[in-house]
Specification:
- The complex is a heterodimer of chains A (about 775) and B (about 290).
- Chain A contains 20 helices and 34 strands.
- With about 775 residues, chain A is of the alpha+beta class.
- In chain A, the strands form ten sheets. Chain A has a seven-stranded mixed β-sheet. Chain A has a five-stranded mixed β-sheet with strand order 9-17-16-15-10, sandwiched between helices.
- In chain A, strand 15 and strand 16 form a beta hairpin.
- The radius of gyration of chain A is 27 Å and the shape is globular.
- Chain B has three domains: about 45 residues, Uridine Diphospho-n-acetylenolpyruvylglucosamine Reductase, domain 2, CATH 3.30.43; about 110 residues, Uridine Diphospho-n-acetylenolpyruvylglucosamine Reductase, domain 3, CATH 3.30.465.10; about 110 residues, Enolase-like, domain 1.
- In chain B, about 35% of the residues lie in helices and about 25% in strands.
- In chain B, the strands form four sheets. A five-stranded antiparallel β-sheet of chain B has the order 4-5-10-6-7. Chain B has a four-stranded antiparallel β-sheet with strand order 11-12-13-14. A three-stranded parallel β-sheet of chain B has the order 1-3-2, covered by helices on one side.
- In chain B, strand 12 and strand 13 form a beta hairpin.
- In chain B, helix 9 runs antiparallel to helix 10 and helix 10 crosses helix 11.
- The radius of gyration of chain B is 19 Å and the shape is globular.
- Chain B starts with 6 loop residues before the first strand and ends with a helix.
- Classes of the chains: A alpha+beta (about 775), B alpha+beta (about 290).
- The interface between A and B is medium-sized, with 31 and 21 residues.
C-alpha cells in the first residue's frame, strides 16, 4: 500500500485498488450486512412445477406459524395492481403467480416473519393445489404443433412466438451465396448459463409510514433506472424513492433486472410499516434470476476460391423463458447479435432471429457480455475455424486473409455498425508470437502421428461496448448516457459521484485515476461514490462494459470542465492572462516562467476563498455523457489442448490472450478483469450449464451441479496487449470487462475441435464435457 | 437455507450415546464430522428429530495397528488419514485416495467412518473399503459386532447398521508381501463427487496375483465390489490380456445410470479404462515394494 500511497495514480499506473482495504479487512458493507431496527424477514414460496395451473392457495396454516406477520399471495398483490410488472423488453412478468406458474422456481407466495428461519419454516405450511400442465423446454417444443400456450394471460397471443427480427440485407446475401465457391455451415447451441455472482440478489425495503419515503437497499447494478421503474410501476412519487446499492459481491448482469422479491418486499414494507429484508439462497438465485444465452444458431459462411469470405447468413432461435425479460436496448430484439460479422471484412450479411416462450426462468441478461455479443462472437469464431479446417487453410492464415484491415477504419459493417478503430493483424501476430505458433504446429503434427489427440484453437473477437448513443440505445425509453459529478473541496481533495455501480470492477480506483490524470489531484485524494440515488447523478448503471466508455468519459469531461475553471482561478492568483498559462498535470505555470505556478490545490482553495470579480464560488461540476459511437475492443486468444482418449477429458495446456481495449487506465485492474473473464469463459466452455429435464425441472440449481471453475480448473493465463485508442473517447479507452468472456469460449472449443478434426469431428456444443468428447471419439472408433 | 428444527444431544461417553440411541434411534442421526449430514439438513432433504453428535466422545480418533489390521476410529478425520505415516507405509492406497475427497475444508472435519456409514454410492471411501476388504466394528447396548464391508451397503444411503448402533471403528487388513493399489477418479471439478471412480488393490505372490480388490464408485445403487473381475486376476500374472479381461468384467459389473455427468455407456467404459490404468499402476507399485 505504501508504494501506492506515494504514486500519483494517473492513467497507466497500476496502483493498488483503493476499495480493497475494507474488503480484505471484512469491513465491506454488503446487503446482508445491513440490519435495520424492527426489521422483518421475507421468504418466497416457489413453484415446484415448470407449468401448472394454480387451483387454490391456502395460507391459513402458514399464517398461524410462530413469528409469522403476513403471508402474501398474488391475489393480495393484484388488489394493489402489483401482481404483474413490466419487463425490460416490453413484456409483462408475474410478481406472484395468480393464474398459472410458468417455470420451476417461479414466485408463488411470500411469508413475512420476525426471523428468517421462521419465514422459511412457514413456507412448508402454505398449501397450493396445482393442476400440472405439459412443460415446454426448447424453442422446438414451443413451435411444435399443438404445443401448450404458455402466455394465455396475454391478449391476442395465440402461440409461443415472441418476436421475429432481422438485420442486414437478404437480397445481396442470397446473391453472394449463389456465387460462392464453398459454403460452410455450423449449427450450434450456446446453452443456458447463469452469472451466479457469489452474493445472491436481495433487498431491504424500508417505507417510512410517517413521511412516505421509500428507501430500498438493493443489490442493483442500475439503481437509478430501478428508481424510475418503481415510480412508474408502483405509482410512487420519484423524489420519495431512494435506492441504495451497497457493496455488491459480483453482478455480471444478474443484478440488472427488477425481481419479484424486490416488489413484494417493498409492498410488504408499505403495508406493514416495518423494514422487510429479502435475500435469496443459492438455489433461488440459480433457478429464478436472470440467466444468459440459450441461443440455437445456424450460420452459413460463403467463401470464394481464394479463401475470401463473401457473405454470412445466420438464423437463430432464442429461448427466452416464460416472460420476455431480456436486458437489452429497446430497439434490438436480439441484442447486439448483429455484430456477428466480427473481425472480418464480409461484404454482405443477413441475420434472422425468432424468440420463443418456454417454461424456463425469464431474464436473458448479458452474463459478462454486451447484450448477446458472446453468442455472436462464438458463432462467427467457431464457424471461421470450421471453415478453415474444411478448406484446408491454417486457421490463423484464414483469419488474416479476411480481417478488416487497419486502414479500413472507421469500418462500416454489413449489418450497419461503424467500428471505431482496430488493428486485428497486429493482435493476431502478438498472440502467435507469444504462442510460438509455427513450432507448436509442428509439435502437434508430430504428436498426432503418435496417436495423441491434441490441438490449437484461435479466436479473434471483436466486442462492441459502451452503450450507447442515445438515439439508438435506451432501456424502456431511458437513454443510455451516463454521468459524473465532481466536487473539489477547498483543501484540494475531491469527491466523484457517478451514475454507474461497481460490483467488484474497481471503480473507486479507476475513476479516481481519470480525475488524477485530467485534474491533477492524486488518486488517493479522490473519493468515488456510487449507488445512492439520493446523492449520485442520474445514470444507467454498470453492465455491458459501459462504465469506462460512458461514465469514464463523463469523468474525463467533468474534470476538464473544472480544470478550465481552475485555469481562471490560477490566472487570477498569478495575475496572468489565462491564455498564457500552461497546464502540466497538477499545476498551471506561466509560459516561459515555470517557477511562477499554482497547483490545482491552490486553485481549488481560491475557488472558496479568493475569487476573481463576478465568478461563482466553488469548484464543482457535473457532466452527462451521451457517447457519439460505441467502442470496439478486440483481441486474439489462442488455446492449446490435449484430449484423453480413454475418458474424453480435455486438458488446457496453454491459454494466450492478447487484448486491445484501447488506453488502459489501471493495467493491473485490466489484467484482473481479463483473468476473471477468461476463467468464466473456461467455465462456460467446459463446465457451466443450466439445463432442464423433460418435466422442466432445473438441473443446475446448486454449486454441486452448476459448476463454477476455481483456480484448480482454470489454466494459467498468458496475457499480451496491443493499444489502439478509441478515436472518439476522451481518453481513448474502450472497456474490457467482457472481452474475455466474449472471446474465450470459442478459442477453447476451437482447440478441442482442432484436436478432434483428424477424426472428422466438427462440433461439440458447450459445455464441452468429457462424456461428450468421449461419445464423439467413440463414434469414430477412437478408443484406449 | 435453514434446517428444520431438531433436538441435539452431545453425549460425552459412548455408553451415554448408545443409551440415547436405544431410546430414540429410529428418529435420530448420528453425526461425526457432519460434512454430509449438515448440507442435507440445510437443504431439508433430511429432517431427523434428533442429532446425536459423537464428536465429544474420547478415544475414537485413533489410527493404530491391531492384530494384522489397521484400526481407524470413528472420529479420525480425512486429514488424519492424509497425514498418517502408518497408513502411508501400510496402505498407501488410502493416502493417495484421500486427496480426491472433496476439499481441505471438508477433509479437516469429515471422517472415514461417517462417510462409509453415510453410504452415498458416489462416496469415495466405500469403494476403497471394498477393495481393501475392510470390516466395521459396530456397538450397541447389546455389545459389539463386526460387519464385513461386503454386504454392508444395501442401497443409496442405506446400510445393515441398526438404529441403535454406532460404528466405532473400521478395521482394514494389512497386506503382506508385495502389494499396491491405486485410485482413479473422474470428476467434473476439483472436489466434485465422482462421475466414475475405481479403486484397485493387488497383492502378489511372486509374479502372480494372490489377492485382488476392485471397488467401483458412482456406478450403481451402492459402491460396488467387482468380484468376478477380482476372481479373474487371482493366480494370474498381470499381463495386458488378463488386465483387459478384468477391466471388461468390472465394466460389466457396473450398473450406472444416464445423468448429467454422462451416459451409462460412458461410465461403463470409463470403468474399463480406469481398471486397466489402475491395475497397471497397482502392479508397478507392488513391484516397487518388492524391489
Amino acid at each position: 500500500m505504501s508504494s501506492t500511497m506515494h504514486m500519483h495514480g494517473g492513467i497507466g499506473e497500476s496502483i493498488k485498488r483503493k476499495e480493497d482495504g475494507r474488503f480484505l479487512r471484512g469491513k465491506g458493507n454488503f446487503l446482508d450486512d445491513i440490519v435495520l431496527p424492527n426489521m422483518l424477514h421475507m421468504a418466497i414460496l416457489r413453484s415446484p412445477y415448470a407449468h401448472a395451473r394454480i387451483k387454490s392457495i391456502d395460507t391459513a396454516a402458514a399464517s398461524s406459524k410462530p413469528g409469522v406477520i403476513a403471508v402474501v399471495t398474488g391475489e393480495l398483490m393484484a388488489q394493489h395492481k402489483l401482481a404483474w410488472m413490466p419487463t425490460m423488453s416490453g413484456d409483462t412478468q408475474a410478481v406472484l403467480a395468480t393464474d398459472k406458474v410458468r417455470f420451476q422456481g417461479q414466485e408463488v407466495a411470500a411469508v413475512i416473519a420476525e426471523t428468517k428461519a421462521q419465514a422459511e419454516d412457514a413456507l412448508a405450511s402454505i398449501e397450493v393445489d396445482y393442476e400440472v400442465l405439459p412443460a415446454i423446454i426448447s424453442p422446438d417444443g414451443a413451435k411444435a404443433k399443438g404445443a401448450a400456450l404458455i402466455r394465455d394471460d396475454k391478449e391476442g397471443q395465440t402461440d409461443n412466438h415472441i418476436y421475429h427480427w432481422e438485420s442486414g440485407d437478404e437480397g445481396t446475401t442470397k446473391a453472394a451465396f449463389a456465387k460462392a465457391h464453398k459454403v460452410v455451415r455450423l449449427h450450434t447451441f450456446y446453452p443456458r448459463c447463469h452469472p451466479a455472482p457469489l452474493e445472491t440478489c436481495g433487498c431491504i425495503a424500508d417505507v417510512n409510514p410517517a413521511t412516505g419515503k421509500t428507501t430500498i437497499y438493493m443489490t442493483s447494478q442500475a439503481p437509478h433506472a430501478i428508481r424510475t421503474v418503481f415510480a412508474l410501476v408502483a405509482g410512487l412519487s420519484e423524489q420519495n424513492i431512494r435506492i441504495v446499492s451497497p457493496d455488491l459481491g459480483g453482478g455480471f448482469g444478474n443484478k440488472v433486472p427488477v425481481y419479484p422479491g424486490y416488489v413484494v418486499a417493498t409492498a410488504a414494507s408499505l403495508l406493514l410499516g416495518r423494514p422487510v429484508k429479502w435475500i435469496e439462497d443459492r438455489t433461488e438465485n440459480l433457478i429464478s434470476t436472470g440467466f444468459a444465452r440459450d441461443y440455437h444458431m445456424t450460420g452459413d459462411l460463403a467463401v470464394d476460391e481464394n479463401g475470401k469470405m463473401l457473405a454470412l447468413h445466420v438464423h437463430l432461435d432464442s429461448d427466452n423463458g416464460a416472460f420476455f425479460a431480456d436486458a437489452q436496448p429497446t430497439k434490438f430484439k436480439a441484442g447486439l447479435f448483429h455484430i456477428v460479422t466480427g473481425s472480418y471484412d464480409i461484404p454482405t450479411a443477413h441475420i434472422t432471429a425468432d424468440g420463443y416462450y418456454t417454461n424456463k426462468a425469464p431474464g436473458g441478461v448479458a452474463y459478462r457480455c454486451s447484450f448477446r455479443v458472446t453468442e455472436a462472437s462464438y458463432l462467427i469464431e467457431r464457424l471461421v475455424t470450421n471453415a478453415a479446417i474444411e478448406l484446408g487453410i491454417d486457421q490463423a492464415e484464414f483469419r488474416k486473409r479476411n480481417f478488416i484491415q487497419p486502414e479500413q477504419f472507421p469500418y462500416h459493417s454489413a449489418t450497419g455498425w461503424v467500428y471505431d478503430s482496430g488493428d486485428y493483424p497486429k493482435a493476431m501476430d502478438v498472440a502467435l508470437d507469444k504462442l510460438g505458433y509455427a513450432e507448436l504446429k509442428k509439435d502437434v503434427e508430430a504428436r498426432r502421428k503418435k496417436g495423441e489427440v491434441t490441438g490449437i484453437g484461435i479466436a479473434s473477437f471483436t466486442e462492441v461496448v459502451g452503450a450507447g448513443p442515445g438515439a439508438d440505445y435506451d432501456i424502456l425509453g431511458l437513454r443510455m448516457f451516463d454521468s459524473a459529478e465532481l466536487r473539489v473541496h477547498p483543501t484540494g481533495k475531491a469527491l466523484l459521484r457517478m451514475g454507474t455501480k461497481s460490483q467488484g470492477q474497481g471503480h473507486e480506483t479507476t475513476f479516481a485515476q481519470i480525475v488524477a490524470e485530467e485534474l491533477g489531484i492524486p488518486a488517493m485524494d479522490v473519493s468515488v461514490e456510487e449507488g445512492d440515488t439520493d446523492t449520485a447523478p442520474y445514470g444507467l448503471g454498470t453492465y455491458a462494459s459501459r462504465s469506462t466508455p460512458v461514465a469514464g468519459a463523463a469523468t474525463a469531461m467533468v474534470a476538464r470542465q473544472l480544470r478550465e475553471k481552475a485555469r481562471k482561478l490560477a490566472a487570477h492568483l498569478l495575475e496572468a492572462a489565462e491564455e498564457d498559462l500552461v497546464w502540466e498535470r497538477g499545476k498551471f505555470y506561466v509560459k516561459g516562467s515555470p517557477e511562477r505556478s499554482k497547483t490545482i490545490q491552490e486553485a481549488a482553495f481560491a475557488a472558496y476563498t479568493n475569487l476573481p470579480e463576478g465568478m461563482q464560488p466553488g469548484l464543482e461540476g457535473v457532466h452527462y455523457y451521451d457517447p457519439p459511437n460505441m467502442t470496439y475492443p478486440f483481441g486474439t486468444y489462442a488455446v492449446v489442448v490435449d484430449v484423453d482418449k480413454g475418458t474424453g477429458q480435455v486438458k488446457v495446456k496453454r491459454m494466450v490472450a492478447v487484448d486491445d481495449c484501447g488506453v488502459r487506465i489501471n493495467p493491473m485492474i485490466v489484467e484482473g478483469q481479463i483473468h476473471g473473464g477468461l476463467a468464466e469463459g473456461y467455465g462456460i466452455a467446459f463446465m457451466q450449464l443450466i439445463t432442464f429435464d423433460d418435466e422442466g425441472n432445473c438441473i443446475g440449481s446448486n454449486f454441486m451441479d452448476y459448476l463454477i471453475p476455481g483456480s484448480w480448473e482454470t489454466p494459467k493465463f498468458e496475457l499480451g496487449e496491443t493499444t489502439t485508442p478509441s478515436p472518439h473517447h476522451p481518453i481513448g479507452a474502450k472497456g474490457v470487462g467482457e472481452s474475455p468472456t466474449v472471446g474465450s469460449p470459442a478459442a477453447y472449443v476451437n482447440a478441442v475441435i482442432d484436436a478432434l478434426s483428424p477424426y472428422g469431428i466438427t462440433n461439440i456444443d458447450m459445455p464441452v464435457t468429457s462424456d461428450k468428447v468421449w461419445a464423439a471419439l467413440r463414434s469414430k472408433g477412437v478408443t484406449e | 437455507m435453514f434446517p428444520a428444527a431438531f433436538d441435539y444431544e452431545a453425549p460425552s461417553t459412548l455408553t451415554e450415546a448408545l443409551s440415547i440411541l436405544k431410546q430414540r434411534g429410529d428418529d435420530a442421526k448420528v453425526m461425526a464430522g457432519g460434512q454430509s449430514l449438515i448440507p442435507l439438513l440445510k437443504l431439508r432433504f433430511a429432517q431427523p428429530q434428533l442429532i446425536v453428535d459423537i464428536a465429544r466422545i474420547p478415544g475414537l480418533a485413533d489410527i493404530k495397528r491391531d492384530d494384522g489390521h489397521v484400526r481407524i476410529g470413528a472420529l479420525a478425520r480425512h486429514v488424519d488419514i492424509e497425514r498418517s505415516r502408518e497408513l502411508a507405509k501400510l496402505l498407501p492406497l488410502m493416502v493417495e485416495a484421500v486427496h480426491w475427497i472433496a476439499d481441505p475444508l471438508v477433509r479437516n472435519r469429515g471422517t472415514l467412518v461417517g462417510s462409509v456409514c453415510h453410504a452415498d454410492p458416489s462416496g469415495d471411501w466405500g469403494s476403497i473399503m471394498l477393495a481393501l476388504n475392510a470390516e466395521l466394528v459396530a456397538q450397541s447396548n447389546k455389545g459389539e459386532r463386526v460387519i464385513p464391508i461386503d454386504g454392508f451397503f444395501q442401497g443409496p444411503f442405506t446400510t445393515t447398521l441398526r438404529p441403535d448402533e454406532i460404528v466405532t471403528a473400521i478395521r482394514i487388513p494389512v497386506p503382506s508381501g508385495s502389494a499396491g493399489g491405486s485410485y482413479h477418479k473422474l470428476e467434473r471439478r476439483v472436489g466434485d463427487f465422482a462421475t466414475v471412480a475405481v479403486s484397485v488393490q493387488v497383492e502378489l505372490d511372486g509374479r502372480k496375483v494372490k489377492k485382488a480388490g476392485i471397488g467401483l464408485t458412482s456406478v450403481g445403487a451402492t459402491n460396488l465390489k467387482a468380484k468376478q473381475a477380482e476372481q479373474a486376476l487371482i493366480g494370474h500374472e498381470l499381463n495386458d490380456q488378463v488386465i483387459a479381461e478384468a477391466a471388461k468384467l468390472a465394466a460389466d459389473a457396473a450398473e450406472p445410470k444416464d445423468d448429467i455427468r454422462g451416459s451409462a455407456a460412458y461410465k461403463k467404459d470409463v470403468v474399463r479404462v480406469f481398471v486397466q490404468r489402475g491395475l497397471k499402476a497397482a502392479l508397478a507399485r507392488a513391484q516397487e515394494v518388492r524391489a
